Amino acid sequence: MARKTIPGGALVLFSGGQDSTTCLAWALERYDRVETIGFDYGQRHRIELDCRLTVLASMREKFPEWSALLGEDVVVGVEAIGALSNTALTRDVEMRMGADGLPNTFVPGRNLIFLAFAAALAYRRGLKHIVTGVCETDYSGYPDCRDDTIKAMQVALNLGLERRFVLETPLMWIDKAQTFALARELGGTAFLDLVREETHSCYAGDRTKDHDWGKGCGVCPACQLRADGWSKFVAEGL
Fold first, then answer.
1. How far apart are the C-alpha atoms of 184 and 9, rounded to whole Å?
2. pLDDT in the model for residue 132
3. Residue 171 confidence (pLDDT)
4. What is the spatial distance between Cα 222 and Cα 25, in angstroms, rounded to a whole number?
5. Is position 79 within any domain?
6. Which residue range forms the structural domain that includes residue 95?
7. Which long-range contacts (CB under 8 A, 24 or more apart) does 201-208 make?
8. What angle do CA 89, 90, 91 make, to 5 degrees?
9. Cα 187 to Cα 191: distance, rounded to the nearest angstrom
């Protein structure tokens, strides 16, 4: 994919998972400078905070053309999210569907808070584009991942901060198999291997078990989604 070097810069919400890592590569192929922001919200799978640093280091080392564009990384502590919520991502409880039809891995307000903090940093840094890996296609049931939510949030941020931010969602209409394919398109087999081996998606925080699609417990919803995506990616030769 040819780099477009769009001016205005981008801030990527980067957790170190498959989706946000692919979004980071997507941004590096487009914008003249790219920074990253992560969040410590008391998540059960806190190992992702370590994984994100490993992924960033690998991207700098293995992809020098991206390294030249990759700027500062910031981790913001928003532990109040964990303190206020009672979910399977912030408490040691079984992952299941709730009575309201939402999985109990849904952390209320999380993505909205993340975007508000990201916009505050983008405002200070003079970055126009805010990139997030939310997706409706592999629908988790999370209402804050929907396209309508993101569009409404963009309007609210632009009005509240008197700026013209653009919330970019490169994965919104593609599934996990297509996300693996996009990773390969962006950075070749080397980047696809990095995504498989070094990113973290497992809600249980397990990195002791190896699979073709990466490391994880293999049974939580995030692992199942990633495993199914990899199977489809291989089967359909995407």
1. 23
2. 97
3. 97
4. 21
5. yes
6. 10-174
7. 201/17, 201/18, 201/19, 201/225, 201/226, 202/45, 203/44, 203/45, 203/88, 203/89, 203/95, 203/105, 204/44, 204/45, 205/44, 205/45, 205/46, 205/47, 205/48, 207/47, 207/51
8. 100
9. 5
What domain count does the chain have? 1
98-114 as b/e, with b when 16 or more CB fall inside 10 Å? eeeeebbbbbbebbbbb
Q: Rounded to whole angstroms, how far apart are CA atoms 228 and 212?
A: 11
- Does residue 184 belong to any structural domain of this protein? no
Q: Each residue of 76-104: pLDDT tens digit?
A: 998 777 776 665 455 555 555 555 555 65
Look at residue 168 and tell me if it is in a domain.
yes
Give the integer Cα–Cα distance in Å for 182 and 187. 9
Lowest-pLDDT range of 35-44, 56-65, 105-114: 105-114
What are the structure tokens assigned to 101, written together? Answer: 């039809």
Residue 193 within any structural domain of the chain: no
Rg over alpha carbons for the chain, rounded to the nearest Å, is 17
Q: How far is CA 221 from CA 139, 161, 167, 182, 203, in A?
A: 11, 36, 26, 22, 8
CATH of the domain at 107: 3.40.50.620
Q: What is the SS3 assignment for 137-178?
A: CCCCCCHHHCHHHHHHHHHHHHHHHCCCCEEECCCCCCCHHH
Q: Is the pTM of this model over 0.70?
A: yes
Residue 11: its H or E element: strand 10-13
CA angle, 236 as apex, 232 and 237 as ends, to 5°? 110
CB of 229 closer than 8 Å to CB of 183: no
